[in-house]
Write a structure and sequence with these properties.
This protein is mainly α. The chain has one domain. Helices cover about 65% and strands about 5% of the residues. The protein has 7 helices and 3 strands. Strands 1-2-3 form a 3-stranded antiparallel sheet. α1 runs antiparallel to α3 and α1 runs antiparallel to α6. The longest helix has about 40 residues.
């Protein structure tokens, strides 16, 4: 077995980085789809039809929580890609955040947001504040508009970087 040359190693690293960009873009897109679905479900729940038909209201409520769950899963996946839990992957996360322009204190960073909602038996303590477009759990409010704004920017940047065939260091430094 022959040793890999520096170019081969760079090519593999570049490919892996582009795969990670594509996954950040995909998970951001999933989260934004969930936010759109949540908005539609909240509208349906408040519509006059829902007030006249309990089955429509129940369906909208199920759709709201389905959308919240999908949003939390996708946003959590983005967070895990950008802030990997494994110590040996911390450098990879640092590079991805830098290249994607994600600040250390980004709203996408805290994993407590997703973990707060994981226990299904606590579902009754969770609410969606349609007026402020926020999810509340155990007294903590999580506004969704800033999360959506961060995801839109991240998705656009990740898509751009994923499509670049090779992203040389000189181009990264100039961005």
């Amino acid at each position: 077995m022959r040793a890999r040359g520096a170019k081969e190693i760079h090519d593999v690293e570049d490919h892996i980085r582009r795969v990670l960009y594509a996954e950040v873009e995909r998970q951001s897109a999933f989260a934004l789809i969930a936010i759109g679905d949540l908005t539609a479900a909240l509208f349906a729940q408040n519509a006059s039809l829902a007030r006249r038909s309990p089955s429509v209201a129940v369906g909208a409520t199920d759709r709201i929580w389905y959308s919240v769950q999908a949003l939390l899963t996708a946003a959590g996946n983005v967070s895990k890609l950008l802030w990997p839990a494994a110590e040996e992957d911390a450098g990879r996360g640092d590079v991805l955040r830098e290249e994607l322009g994600v600040a250390r204190d980004s709203i996408l960073g805290p994993r407590t947001f997703g973990r707060d909602f994981e226990p299904v038996d606590d579902r009754l303590e969770q609410t969606v504040d349609a007026k402020n477009f926020a999810v509340t759990f155990q007294g903590a409010s999580y506004p969704l508009r800033p999360i959506a704004a961060a995801l839109v920017q991240l998705q656009e940047r990740a898509k751009l970087l994923a499509e670049v065939p090779a992203w040389p260091a000189s181009a990264r430094a100039a961005s």
